[in-house]
């Protein structure tokens, strides 16, 4: 008996239908939105910090951030979140990541595409204090908010030798 995922991967690749990255979300619509949003955030980070290094986590896990942004030798974890509606973002998927970062002492910025992030901000502040924040970013018009939040986290950090 063959594993259907391996079979799909092998035959899908042979026919040229293999996706670049496996879907990350719970539905195809959310997955497409998340993939597009990740690319947009990645482009914004490159635009705002052209000399920065950006490392991507290609594997979907709940306890690791999507990106590591390294600016001037200092790193900030970046987690992107996509809501398909403009409602309240509670951050219900964040606790495994926050627990891990709390143990590791790392900084985190959660970048949300839309919605009211008030409950998520309280959750992040409760777990990480001033080492974490939530920013709503939906395009270049919000670059100043993203830039200011990341720079504030970078200013707190001590460069590791």
The first-to-last residue Cα distance is 52 Å
- Spatial arrangement of strands, main beta sheet: 1-2-3-4-5
Q: Name the average pLDDT.
A: 83
Note the total helix count.
5
Kindly state the percentage of residues in helix: 40-55%
In words, what does this structure look like?
With 161 residues, this protein is an alpha/beta fold. Helices cover 42% and strands 17% of the residues. It is built from five helices and five strands, in the order ααβββαβαβα. It has a five-stranded mixed sheet with strand order 1-2-3-4-5, with helices on both faces. Strand 3 (74-81), helix 3 and strand 4 form a beta-alpha-beta unit. It is globular, with a radius of gyration of 17 Å. Residues 1-25 have low confidence and may be disordered.
């Amino acid at each position: 008996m063959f594993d259907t995922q391996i079979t799909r991967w092998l035959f899908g690749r042979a026919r040229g239908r293999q996706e670049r990255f496996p879907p990350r979300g719970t539905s195809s619509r959310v997955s497409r939105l998340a993939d597009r949003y990740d690319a947009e955030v990645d482009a914004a980070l490159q635009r705002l910090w052209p000399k920065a290094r950006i490392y991507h986590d290609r594997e979907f896990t709940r306890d690791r951030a999507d990106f590591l942004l390294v600016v001037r030798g200092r790193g900030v974890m970046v987690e992107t979140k996509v809501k398909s509606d403009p409602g309240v973002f509670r951050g219900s998927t964040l606790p495994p990541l926050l627990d891990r970062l709390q143990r590791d002492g790392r900084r985190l910025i959660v970048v949300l595409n839309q919605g009211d992030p008030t409950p998520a901000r309280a959750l992040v502040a409760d777990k990480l204090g001033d080492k974490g924040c939530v920013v709503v970013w939906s395009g270049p018009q919000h670059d100043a908010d993203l830039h200011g939040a990341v720079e504030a986290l970078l200013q707190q950090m001590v460069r590791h030798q």
